[in-house]
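Tokens in:
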């Protein structure tokens, strides 16, 4: 009773003050910040934020799809990959790369970039997919996803790669391997090892790793479709101790906004990883600094090559000016929604309750991000697997909780960082054992339908 009366008195006093304040003359002793004064003479700042946002998105998309960052000096000049594409007849080496072989290696063609005339003749089957000259024509049109031909007039003099090589695919709307771009979707058909092995020489890679070329070829061959090893070039681990491939499956590069750490073992933020990849993996010309890689125990190759501290020549940094917009574009790519007929909606609804409750999935895969806000890292033991890949990151211990949206785009090649689980049934069976869950077969089935619906 006493307390209510007190509260009422305070309220009355407060409203009286507010009333007096609102009737009082405008403040006299408060000055406008000179920066704000200058700002008042310029266009509306809100509009500028929107313009900036649009520009960042467009620039970032351009970079993601088409920027080779000067990597042609490595793929072309050093490995002479363009010569293998051209073939002897067109001034290169070997038989040349036919479009059919390119598609078989998992490379994709953006139909929107193919010249109209070529689309017509391709449709009529009048142009041979077995002619390397057609590959050249596609490259000239910038239509081979992630592969950037460098031309001097009609002549292709070199070749570089872009982010889209591994992180975009196409919707096969024209034919298998040819269609509209799907940025952020992992290209699980792409055999990166096979593409790199096409190069007439791998000597520069062998030299860097301190092994012979045959060993490099063996490691590249061990990867297979949809896989790549982004750490080999620093720790020199070509194979796992059990003799299996050390490569990881290509991850989704969509739905990453709101997610703190990236890569399967959490190397850093999206923009950290972009600088890492553009410089150390694609061999672009830029700046990259990470003293954690100086550790000769864990990263003997990086410590020796100096790749922990890469510096472009003054005025020649082709990566750093691109990082901001590239980051922005990636965060703008939403996770795609699975086709409605690809799962059973009623079962998925039951599966959601299990995911959020009894199966305990949501303790780590927190919706709607499906990873933990904060520092979403777990030991190998917690998720019941070996620690080989976890031990390859600078903190040597953890796996990051994978965001689960758009799982249907990465069913090919398997789940978990190395694709060890063939399908989602195998994943839920694994959790049943590791987490000691008590889910019936029907419940596990529902859980799988829910995962398919994400
Ligand atoms: C040769 C294939 C390849 C190319 C080219 C490539 N990446 Fe990746 N990317 C990978 C692989 C493999 C991983 C997973 C690495 C790991 O976990 O060890 C990855 C991881 C990522 C991730 C983390 C995804 C997540 O789940 O957190 C992002 C973001 C990313 N790449 C963006 C890029 C950008 C931007 C570029 C261009 C600058 C690029 N990548 C070029 C293969 C590639
Ligand atoms: C202790 C935290 C934790 C719990 C609990 C957990 N997960 Fe995971 N989950 C992870 C981590 C970490 C990974 C990454 C493993 C890897 O890539 O090797 C992962 C990966 C996955 C993947 C593979 C994603 C991909 O793209 O390969 C699926 C699917 C998945 N979890 C589903 C579930 C389901 C279903 C449950 C509940 C039964 C569950 N998780 C419970 C931490 C957890």
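Residues out:
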């Amino acid at each position: 009773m006493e307390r209510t009366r007190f509260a009422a008195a305070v309220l009355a006093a407060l409203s009286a003050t507010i009333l007096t304040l609102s009737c009082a003359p405008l403040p006299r002793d408060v000055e406008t910040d000179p920066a704000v004064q200058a700002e008042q003479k310029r266009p509306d700042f809100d509009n500028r934020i929107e313009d900036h946002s649009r520009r960042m998105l467009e620039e970032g998309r351009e970079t993601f799809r088409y920027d080779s960052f000067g990597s042609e000096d490595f793929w072309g000049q050093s490995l002479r990959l363009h010569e293998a594409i051209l073939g002897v007849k067109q001034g290169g080496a070997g038989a040349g790369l036919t479009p059919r072989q390119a598609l078989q290696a998992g490379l994709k063609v953006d139909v929107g970039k193919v010249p109209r005339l070529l689309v017509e003749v391709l449709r009529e089957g009048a142009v041979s997919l077995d002619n390397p000259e057609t590959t050249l024509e596609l490259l000239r049109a910038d239509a081979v996803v992630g592969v950037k031909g460098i031309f001097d007039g009609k002549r292709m003099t070199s070749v570089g790669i872009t982010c889209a090589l591994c992180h975009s695919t196409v919707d096969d709307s024209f034919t298998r391997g040819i269609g509209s771009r799907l940025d952020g979707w992992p290209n699980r058909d792409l055999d990166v090892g096979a593409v790199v092995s096409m190069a007439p020489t791998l000597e520069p890679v062998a030299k860097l790793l301190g092994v012979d070329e045959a060993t490099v070829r063996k490691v590249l061959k061990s990867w297979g479709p949809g896989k790549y090893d982004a750490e080999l070039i620093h720790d020199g681990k070509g194979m796992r101790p059990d003799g299996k491939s050390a490569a990881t499956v290509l991850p989704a590069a969509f739905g990453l906004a709101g997610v703190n750490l990236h890569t399967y073992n959490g190397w850093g933020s999206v923009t950290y990883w972009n600088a890492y990849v553009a410089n150390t993996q694609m061999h672009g010309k830029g700046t990259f600094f990470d003293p954690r890689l100086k550790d000769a125990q864990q990263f003997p190759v990086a410590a020796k090559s100096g790749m922990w501290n890469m510096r472009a020549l003054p005025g020649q940094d082709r990566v750093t000016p691109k990082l901001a917009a590239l980051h922005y574009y990636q965060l703008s790519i939403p996770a795609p929604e699975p086709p409605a007929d690809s799962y059973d909606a009623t079962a998925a609804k039951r599966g959601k309750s299990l995911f959020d409750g009894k199966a305990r999935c949501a303790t780590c895969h927190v919706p709607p991000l499906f990873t933990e806000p904060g520092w979403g890292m777990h030991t190998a033991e917690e998720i019941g697997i070996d620690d080989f890949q976890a031990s390859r990151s600078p903190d040597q211990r953890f796996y990051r909780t994978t965001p689960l949206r758009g799982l249907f785009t990465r069913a090919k090649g398997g789940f978990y960082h190395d694709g060890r689980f063939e399908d989602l049934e195998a994943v839920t069976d694994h959790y049943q054992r590791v987490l000691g869950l008590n889910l019936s077969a029907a419940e596990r089935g529902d859980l799988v339908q829910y995962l398919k619906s994400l």
